[in-house]
């Protein structure tokens, strides 16, 4: 039985190979989660989305509030972890500032991809397109609903996944990751040739009760220009 196996520390689980999706329990610590909440507590504004031309706007498709996070030693640790996870080869300059997203009852983010279709959002100063995404559940209080749904991924068959994904959903709804504090979902947005992978389509489902604080960690294909980075370094 599994109980007889020696203890090990790593916990990541491959969820899907194509697109690459990896589930990461305990991606951030309780102290880091509290710190993120604390340093952003009065900073949230209505979330923006980019339209097909790359114009940023408030839209009914994304009703959360969000803020980017200024760099500090705790934030740098989280960034380092995200870079190490991706194989150490990616320099910090490829990271967008961490983005926190706050949802209350009824709020959601309609199905979207994190990679951009609009070339105005993938210019050299933005570091090209978003190569990968981590979505981290920072906090979830008394929550129902509010999972992250990938409609084009296959639901897992093994019921041991049910602690991380909602197994009560119809199989044709794809997969919905539960908003479990400090856990993260990682995925690769782009094919090898740089084209966006449509199967990474996903949505933040509406909350039917409680509240949720999430965090996006987006890695671009190339370095962002200093003005768009949290460290502002050259
Ligand atoms: O809220 C979620 O579960 C997903 C949010 C998301 O996909 C995003 O902010 O890009
Ligand atoms: Fe997203």
UniProtKB/TrEMBL annotation:
Superkingdom, natural source: Eukaryota
SMART domains xref list: P4Hc (SM00702)
UniProt entry keywords in alphabetical sequence: Dioxygenase, Iron, Metal-binding, Oxidoreductase, Signal
Cofactor(s) the protein requires to work: L-ascorbate
Gene Ontology molecular functions: iron ion binding; L-ascorbic acid binding; procollagen-proline 4-dioxygenase activity
Gene3D superfamilies given in the database record: q2cbj1_9rhob like domain
GO cellular component terms listed in the entry, alphabetical order: endoplasmic reticulum
Annotated Fe2OG dioxygenase domain residues: 94-221
Pfam families assigned to the protein according to its UniProt record, in alphabetical order: 2OG-FeII_Oxy_3 (PF13640)
PANTHER family registered for this protein in UniProt: PROLYL 4-HYDROXYLASE ALPHA SUBUNIT, TRANSMEMBRANE PROLYL 4-HYDROXYLASE
Protein name: 2OG-Fe(II) oxygenase superfamily protein
């Amino acid at each position: 039985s599994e109980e007889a196996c020696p203890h090990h520390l790593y916990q990541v689980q491959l969820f899907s190979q194509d697109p690459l999706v990896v589930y990461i329990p305990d991606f951030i610590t309780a102290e880091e989660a509290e710190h993120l909440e604390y340093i952003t507590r009065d900073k949230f504004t209505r979330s923006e989305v980019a339209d097909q031309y790359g114009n940023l706007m408030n839209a009914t498709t994304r009703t959360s509030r969000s803020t980017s996070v200024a760099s500090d030693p705790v934030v740098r640790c989280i960034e380092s972890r995200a870079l190490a996870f991706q194989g150490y080869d990616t320099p910090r300059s490829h990271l967008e500032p961490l983005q926190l997203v706050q949802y209350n009852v009824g709020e959601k983010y309609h199905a979207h991809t994190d990679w951009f279709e609009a070339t105005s959002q993938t210019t050299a100063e933005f570091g090209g397109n978003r190569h990968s995404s981590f979505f981290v559940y920072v906090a979830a209080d008394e929550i129902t609903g509010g999972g992250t749904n990938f409609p084009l991924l296959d639901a897992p068959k093994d019921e041991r996944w049910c602690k991380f994904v909602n197994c009560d959903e119809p199989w044709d709804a794809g997969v919905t990751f539960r908003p479990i504090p400090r856990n993260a979902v990682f995925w690769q947005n782009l094919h090898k040739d740089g084209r966006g992978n449509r199967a990474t389509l996903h949505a933040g489902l509406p909350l039917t009760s409680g509240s949720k604080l999430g965090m996006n960690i987006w890695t671009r294909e190339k370095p962002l220009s200093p003005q768009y980075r949290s460290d502002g370094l050259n």
